[in-house]
Amino acid sequence: MKRKKLLAVLLASAMALSMAACGNDAPADSSTLSDQSSGESTPAESSSDETPAESSSETTGDVTYENKVIMGNTTDLTGDFRYPGWGTSSVGASDQDVGRLTIGYSTQEVAEDGNMVWNDTAVKSHTKTENEDGTATFTVELNEGLTFSDGSPLTAKNYLARILAFSTPVAMEAGHPAMVGNAFVGFEEFKAYTGEEAEGASKEFKGVRLLSDYSFSVTVSSDYYPYYFAYTYAGISPAPMGLFLGEGVDIMDDGNGAYLTENFYEKNGDSYVKAAEIEANRYDLTKYPYSGAYVVSDWDASTKQATMTINPEFKGNYEGQTPSIETIVYVKLIQETQLEELTTGGTDILGGVTGGKDTTAALAVVDGENFSETHYQRAGYGKIQFDCDFGPTMFQEVRQAIAYLLNRTEFCQTFTGGYGVVVDGPYSPDLAPWKAIQDEVELIDYSFSPESAKKVLEDGGWIYNSKGEPFVEGAEGVDAVRYKKLTADEANALDGANKTYASVSNTDGVTYATVEVNGEYYMPLAINWFGSTPNDVTDLISTTLANSSDLAATGMVIRSTTGDFNKLLGEIYREPSYGYNGVPTYGMYNLATGFSALINLDTSYQWSHDPAWFTNSSNKLYDSYDIDFPYDIKADKLSYEEAVEASGDKLGMDYLSMGMVYTATTEEEFNQWYMGYVERWNELMPDIPLYSNYYYDVYNSKIENFHTSPFRGPAAALLYANVKGF
């Protein structure tokens, strides 16, 4: 790969709903996942005196409006609103929308341009101090008088609750990776504390300080500082104490670091009592108050509908903006009928309409009087995503072959109807860093080419049949596909999953399975694909790829399974609460991803070989280059040119993603690392980007001041909007 000097570009940012530095559990790349057909992406306690049915109304001309907006999305709601995603690498778009509306007073919030800014509504003052030992301390003083939806005061303890709770073995037992505070001084010792004094463990978190009722500080370890987005270490959201700590637990600080009272570590046998309580709180929408502009006043899991009512205690976002719309109802839409829902009042907003057919139909109803629209280039892309730790898709040549077998230019044109463009990596065309490197970056051209697909497969060892003999094109039955002889390490991957790998959804009666021949394991080139339905992208992949004659002629088969989007997320997360049965089955998915802020370009720890970071990896890809030349965050930092030379021009995904934010100190250096990252990503193809499209938000004209943009979606825009007459 040739390296050239790059243009500089100003870059800053982060996420609104969770701590933003990569040293915590905030997802960085792909913070929002969605069904591609969509835009992205028991009564609960409410301090409002009115129920949705009692919302006030206003007469404008001959029309009487209720101060209520119904927002629709084809991506399923799951009820995972209190801490969307639970520390996983990605968050369901609809759940995150509800989180945006109900979680407020973060010390930093995402501005409309994607940059993270300090929230003056919550923060009175903030300072950064670089210490002699190479650490950095961020001190935050809060404004007094802020309250939760039930009127209870919001203090510094509420900002520290999640950092402390989710840096403990208690959180691990509750199903969380427990890495939130890993960038702060004293993390390892604090995480090792089990409630009993032991060597190497400390009940006090040295780098997290409760300074007063309304001030706190966090000290970043020299291992994680300097950091390109360093100020975002202090981007922290508040939460009711009991939500993350359980009832009766308090936060203390005697001068050596914040700590949790001993009842947090109480055990019943070998289990932590609070672990079950915290895990139950994840989906409990009634027990604890809310900090944001709205509260969830009703959630119906059967219809996937959430009702939110205004929080009168909310004093505003970073701009002091408070809501005007009294009630927001978030509903599950079906792609085929979503336009009818809009025109008949089943929803007031179709957010993120995409696809040529749906976009054309939606724009046809826009008349400026009854329905209006706003549009923008999305900060994200639709994709095929691979699991890369088992099955055929763990092999680079298979992922590349699939890319060669899909005519992405035609696919993009067919799906978007001209309202989108093809991208070749993890970017969208309007991202500033991509603009800075686009004329210099060197990417593999994956233009449609069955011959190229065949070549990379043969070069990768897919040259056998089920008997361990040479593959013959045109064979039938189980020998219609290629097989690969696995090495011992490959056969034992993911606890031996490859030894029992088999195709599913075998509607033709043929099951392709790994076979053992003379003590050697041969894996079939049969891909298990899970696609959400109903979904036009799923349908288009089926016709243009999975069932194409070119794919069959190459010696590959793709087996299709369809289901709802929650099931798809469950398979990606391998999360039982989302329907995962404990057996890894699918290696290919189709969905969409979006950058919720510019800091999503920080993908450090998403490619780590450390099992502790497994849930941060959407693709579960572990680059072999990183084994030979690993990134050591504690070692002296090599410049990009030095690292390229030292590695023999073989920098892996983990090294590149870490270097991008933990080595780069200038914009030009960041861009060098970013270009290397995009090029290596393009070689490995953990995803196949399908399109980066325009989003059209079509809405009832009764909604005024409704302005959306790449980093301010419909849910966030409702904070600034109003219903006519209100």
What does this structure look like?
The protein has 726 residues and is α+β, with helices and mostly antiparallel strands. The protein is 24% helix and 21% strand. The strands form 8 sheets. Strands 1, 4, 5, 16, 17, 18, 19, 20, 21, 22, 27, 28, 29 and 30 form a 14-stranded mixed sheet that branches. A hairpin with a 2-residue loop joins strand 10 and strand 11. Helix 9 (396-405) runs antiparallel to helix 12 and helix 20 (653-662) runs antiparallel to helix 21.
Task: Indicate the radius of gyration in whole angstroms.
Answer: 26 Å
Shape: globular
Q: Class by helix and strand content?
A: alpha+beta
Major sheet summary line: 14 strands, mixed
- Point out poorly predicted stretches: 1-31, 38-55
What portion of the residues fall into strands of 2 or more residues? 15-25%
The assembly state of the depicted protein chains is: single chain
Q: How many E-type strands?
A: 32
Helices, by number, come to 22
Helical content stands at 10-25%
First-to-last CA distance: 58 Å
Compute the average pLDDT. 90
